[in-house]
Specification:
The structure is a single chain. With 536 residues, this protein is an alpha/beta fold. It has a domain of 337 residues: Alkaline Phosphatase, subunit A (3-Layer(aba) Sandwich), CATH 3.40.720.10. Helices cover 38% and strands 14% of the residues. It has 20 helices and 16 strands. The strands form four sheets. The protein has an eight-stranded mixed beta sheet with strand order 6-5-9-1-10-11-4-12, sandwiched between helices.
């Protein structure tokens, strides 16, 4: 019944709180015991020699950094902005409504084309049932989520990990934090983040009390989240590694409903209400990100930071894509699995203030490639690390994108999707491949299967507990607490005194909270609203 009431609840496992509510405590206890048994059985059978096999694979597929980019952002703050359900087609998209054209994401478009941004036009999400949690796992550990369920929920709170916050904390003395306007138990983040080495996790308990005007079912809306985060961010010692998880552009794309100040961006005109609302919430997210960037510049954080922005997964599911097709200039009748595959592209941008050689790269890659790419830009040698991704700026990158659905992949030459094979450049289906094509695609299938199976062995066997990585220690999660975090940050400031590197200290112990300004949609479009009223 739980699966009927909330589809995919057990297979995705957002939070044990939700599972308890759906199953009842007795049934949950049995379900949890079975999950624990299965997990522990595989873990107990794993050995250090299993890790050796994985390390051999990783060594053979290591992509050395490009000397042109290695270390160009060394020592900078890292700010990661998680763009919820944000697909690549939104970049530069103009929605046509009643004969008028509306640019959906003007600010993100400007970042995408900035000469201070390394942007990627063929970057794909690689999530499955774990959705957002899979994206976080891929982006910050360079390992995949699971073929079934969420890695964060099933393993994240116990498995040894070498994730971005831990690596940077040990190699560059970075302080780390996550800001997210939902409850900390969702996706088991409150436990998994400790295993990843996050020093602080500011969840909804640290933010404004939620109500119908400032939030919806997935948490505090983005402008409120960014605004509330500043009173904590400004007390963090620099350099820091921070992640801001947005939620307003989350299915069913009704987060602005009832908020008259934020409603105003037109809805699309299709038979699918989900599609219709998608562009308005994306526009709100764009406005929130711009407001945060304005704050970074005003406060002085911008120039010494590197800002990574990425879409975590699709926003419009494949089942709705034929309704979306006309808005993309496509014919619903001729829509194919190839078109579905291409819509799995999501934005990936690395904005480096002061850098002037930015460009839009057509290199094919996925979320698993983020961590080595980012670490190399920060000047971190990853040659001994256990990461399945490849630096997207490396000349050795093989441009093979694995999807978690068996047999699906994308390369610059071939796309395999739902049992069909296509030429990537044209979308032409290959129905009778010759011997050379068969050999080439078999090699790709084998490579993809090996990458995924290697990840699964590492994740389900908790193989990183056997790892001895030069310069890195395993995280002691018992030493990390997410209570009274502001008190902790202020205590560190006081202890360091004149040597404190927090933004608050740099501003002579004056807060920067008032520097954040996030005008509503109506405020941003007052002139057009006035003109419209006058014409009526």
């Amino acid at each position: 019944m739980a699966e009927v009431d909330r589809p995919e609840l057990l297979t995705r496992g957002f939070s044990n709180v939700y599972v308890v509510r759906a199953l009842g405590l007795p049934s949950f206890t049995a379900y949890s015991a079975n999950q624990t048994y299965q997990t522990e059985k595989v873990r107990s059978e794993a050995t250090a020699s299993d890790l050796d096999e994985a390390k051999n694979y990783i060594s053979e597929h290591y992509a050395a950094p490009n000397s042109k980019y290695f270390g160009i952002a060394k020592g900078r703050n890292v700010i990661v902005i998680h763009l919820e359900s944000f697909q690549q087609f939104l970049i530069d998209y103009h929605l046509q409504v009643d004969g008028k054209s509306y640019e959906v994401t003007p600010f993100l478009n400007s970042l995408y084309h900035s000469n201070s941004t390394l942007a990627f036009s063929n970057f794909f999400h690689q999530v499955k049932a774990g959705k957002t949690s899979d994206a976080e796992t891929l982006m910050e550990t360079s390992l995949f989520g699971l073929s079934n369920g969420s890695y964060l929920v099933n393993y994240g709170g116990t498995n040894t990990a070498y994730a971005a916050p831990s690596i940077l904390g040990q190699t560059g003395d970075y302080t780390s934090a996550v800001f997210h306007g939902n409850v900390g138990t969702f996706w088991n983040r409150n436990n998994a983040y400790k295993q990843w080495g996050y020093d602080y996790f500011f969840d909804s308990s640290y933010f404004t009390k939620q109500n119908s005007e400032n939030s919806f079912q997935y948490g505090l809306n983005d402008k409120y989240m960014f605004a509330d985060a500043i009173k904590y961010l400004e007390h963090m010692q620099q350099p820091f590694y921070t992640k801001f998880i947005t939620v307003s552009n989350h299915y069913p794309y009704t987060s602005l409903a009832g908020n008259s100040d934020e409603e105003g961006f037109p809805l699309a005109d299709t038979d699918d209400e989900t599609i219709n609302g998608y562009f308005a919430t994306a526009n709100y997210l764009d406005s929130a990100v711009k407001a945060f960037f304005d704050y970074l510049k005003e406060s002085g954080l911008y120039d010494n930071s590197i800002i990574v922005l990425y879409g975590d997964h699709y926003g419009i599911s494949n089942s709705r894509n034929t309704d979306l097709a006309p808005l993309l200039g496509k014919d619903s009748e001729t829509w194919t699995s190839y078109d579905n595959a291409m819509l799995q592209r999501v934005p990936y941008m690395i904005h480096i203030p002061g850098f002037t050689e930015g460009h839009i790269s057509d290199t094919f890659g996925g979320e698993v490639d983020n961590l080595p790419t980012l670490l190399h830009l920060l000047g971190v040698d990853t040659s001994d690390y256990i990461q399945l991704g490849q630096d997207l700026l490396s000349e050795d990158n093989d441009q093979t994108v694995a999807f978690r659905t068996a047999g699906d992949y994308v390369t610059p030459t071939y796309t395999s999707s739902s049992g069909h094979l296509y030429y990537t450049a044209t979308g032409e289906e290959i129905t009778n491949p010759d011997e050379n094509t068969q050999a080439a695609t078999k090699a790709i299938r084998d490579a993809v299967a090996l990458q995924l199976s290697t990840s699964d062995e590492i994740q389900t066997g908790d193989l990183l507990r056997f790892a001895k990585i030069p310069g890195l220690k395993q995280v002691d999660s018992s030493s990390i607490s997410y209570t009274d975090s502001l008190k902790s940050l202020k205590a560190i400031e006081k202890k360091r005194g004149d040597e404190s590197t927090s933004l608050y200290s740099e501003h002579d112990n004056e807060s920067t909270v008032d520097m954040f300004k996030a005008p509503s949609y109506m405020q941003l479009h007052e002139s057009s609203s006035s003109s419209s009223s006058e014409s009526e």
